[in-house]
Specification:
Elements (H helix, E strand, L loop, with lengths): L1 E8 L6 E7 L11 E5 L2 H8 L9 H12 L3 E5 L6 H10 L1
Parallel strand pairs: 1-3, 3-4
Antiparallel strand pairs: 1-2
Helix pairs in contact: 1-2
């Protein structure tokens, strides 16, 4: 199973949104493995090195790390032009 994810924030952090999209219908995919793709290098770095994460996001990142350590989850960087639809969803929320 593959999940594309992206986030967006307004200037000064007054509002934010998260978008995500699965590569195939949930009822037809292999749920034993998950690949999370994102175009946000900072977020992927925070997940691989939580001490580099800003304090304001640390609890969320620690939760992601805890969940991903107990399952087969791979985090992967992809260019923004391969994540356009999810980027649009994240920005639509704010």
């Amino acid at each position: 199973m593959k999940l594309n994810a992206d986030g967006a924030m307004k200037v000064y952090g007054s509002a934010g949104g998260i978008g995500g999209g699965l590569s195939e219908p949930l009822d037809s995919c292999d749920k034993s493995h998950l690949v999370v793709e994102s175009d946000c290098k900072s977020t992927l770095e925070w997940i691989s090195n939580p001490s580099s994460c800003p304090t304001s996001f640390r609890s969320v990142v620690q939760c992601i790390v805890k969940v991903s350590d107990s399952r087969y989850i791979v985090f992967k960087f992809i260019p923004r032009n391969e994540n356009v639809e999810v980027d649009r969803l994240a920005k639509e929320v704010i």
